[in-house]
Amino acid sequence: MLKLHVSESPMDEAGDALEKALEEQKDKHILLLFSGGSAITLVNYLHAKILSSHHTISVLDERYTFDQDESNFSILERTSFFSQVAELGVPVLDPRPRANETLEETAKRFDLALKHWHISHRDGVVLATMGIGPDGHTSGILPMPENTKDFEKLFLDEKKCAVGYESSPEKNPYTKRITTTVTYLTRHVEQAIVFASGVPKREVLQKIVAGEGDIASIPAMVLQQMKHVDLYTDLSLA
Fold this sequence. Notes:
alpha/beta, three-stranded antiparallel β-sheet, globular, Rossmann fold
């Protein structure tokens, strides 16, 4: 279920919604997955005191890179919020590549880490922050309208929580990616707080809200299939 919130201060409202979602689920084990890009700033709205050892933190997707300025997890790790929760002993799932680890090996390790979390916390809840690119991508799932079969094989595999793949630099400067799958987002994410701002995103947001478009061309169409999605924007989509 997708609910649209148009406001003059969408970032503030999204941040408040994220904190409220955590408070509502505070008695449960929670896996909190942060999106990269502009949506990563939602972390600044959280107070570390609302988290505990019942929570686990990770990112929705990662870039296969050893450059800390390009890594989503490294950017999250440098926030004051992360420093505070680390002091509290909050567990993390780190999807960054290790030395001599291939893209495929890194993705498999993250996939197994997510599966292990769900096995260990069968009644656990997954909350996620998400963003939307002007090209319609979300998480690390890039559009593949030219090859829907590859898209389905990668992102609709019911046995995978996360996958690794390589795209072309014409699509995105970060060509090697590890990402949660469409199947994972629809099956396991209980609630997503989505932030999208900027005129270049207006057209794709209109299509997503209207439900017009196939998922291989606009991966963010997955928002229409997920359990509970609150989309915050400052763009009028009329």
